[in-house]
């Protein structure tokens, strides 16, 4: 990645880059695909790897919309496959940047399967991607913050900080004593568990 010419050409002129906070809506991406025979596993359902590929592209578009930079996938967490997706169904992917940190950001991707005849949708999949904005040499560069505008965006923004600590902890990039948000959440959980254990008077 570090000596790629496309990367150099795409990032040398960084006049379009700004560090002003950006609303979540600025990074939103909606992608639509149709499941065809080449996308199927032996059971006749959409291949998990094909879906992850589409999700990665959708998330990359969100990351690049937020930053106006070339962004690379650093990690993928909490991937769930809740319901198989069948041939002929329409796959709708929606992503947005939940929160930006220094050079990295959390992108949430949600996936629905849509019946093309009835247009009814069922929720199938969710994952959280970490993208890092890079310069022309592939090194991480600072990115603008996210400005949440709705209560849901605010909640996602706060949860993103806890998930970040967890993924950095699990990848050995954060010592446990520095995982302060997680420690606070665990203390809160323990307190609510012990108060609900108390017998009624
Ligand atoms: C017509 C115009 C054409 C234009 C044309 C443009 C080109 C259009 C390109 C399209 C692009 C599409 C892209 C698709 C998506 C890929 O397919 S990308 C390919 C797959 N990914 C890669 O190859 C990435 C390989 N990894 C790397 O290059 C480096 O590890 C990284 C990700 C840049 C990080 O570098 P590093 O030296 O570890 O940097 P470090 O300073 O330690 O960490 C930087 C940040 O990453 C975070 N981080 C690092 N590792 C992790 C981890 N495991 N978990 C969580 N966070 C992590 C750190 O916490 C830190 O965050 P901040 O505190 O700064 O917010």
Structure, explained:
- With 201 residues, the protein is α+β, with helices and mostly antiparallel strands.
- The protein has a domain at 22-146: Thiol Ester Dehydrase, Chain A (Roll).
- Helices cover 33% and strands 29% of the residues.
- A hairpin with a 3-residue loop joins β4 and β5 (104-114).
- Palmitoyl-CoA is lined by residues 1, 6, 10, 56, 60, 70, 72-75, 101-104, 130, 132, 134, 138, 140, 167-168, 171, 173.
- Residues 1, 6, 10, 56, 60, 70, 72-75, 101-104, 130, 132, 134, 138, 140, 167-168, 171, 173 line the site of Palmitoyl-CoA.
In short:
This protein has four helices and seven strands; from the N terminus they run H-E-E-H-E-E-E-E-E-H-H. It has helices at 5-12, 48-67, 151-170, 180-197; strands spanning 22-23, 29-34, 70-81, 90-100, 104-114, 121-134, 146-147. It binds Palmitoyl-CoA.
Sum up the structure in keywords:
single chain; about 200 residues; alpha+beta; Thiol Ester Dehydrase, Chain A; two-stranded parallel ribbon; 4 helices; Acyl-CoA hydrolase; hydrolase; Thioestr_dom; HOTDOG_ACOT
């Amino acid at each position: 990645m570090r000596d790629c010419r496309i990367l150099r050409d795409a990032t040398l002129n960084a006049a379009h880059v700004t560090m002003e906070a950006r609303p979540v809506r600025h990074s939103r991406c909606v992608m639509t695909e149709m499941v065809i025979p080449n996308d199927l596993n032996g059971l006749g359902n959409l291949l998990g790897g094909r879906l992850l590929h589409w999700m990665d592209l959708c998330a990359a578009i969100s990351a690049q919309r937020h930053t106006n930079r070339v962004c690379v996938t650093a990690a993928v967490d909490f991937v769930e496959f809740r319901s198989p997706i069948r041939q002929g169904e329409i796959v709708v992917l929606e992503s947005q940047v939940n929160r930006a940190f220094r050079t990295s950001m959390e992108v949430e991707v949600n996936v629905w399967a849509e019946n093309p005849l009835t247009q009814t949708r069922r929720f199938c999949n969710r994952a959280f991607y970490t993208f890092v904005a890079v310069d022309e040499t592939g090194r991480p560069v600072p990115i603008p913050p996210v400005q949440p505008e709705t209560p849901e965006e605010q909640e996602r923004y706060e949860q993103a900080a806890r998930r970040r600590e967890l993924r950095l902890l699990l990848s050995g990039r954060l010592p446990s004593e520095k995982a302060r948000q997680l420690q606070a959440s665990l203390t809160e959980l323990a307190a609510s568990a012990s108060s609900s254990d108390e017998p009624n008077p």
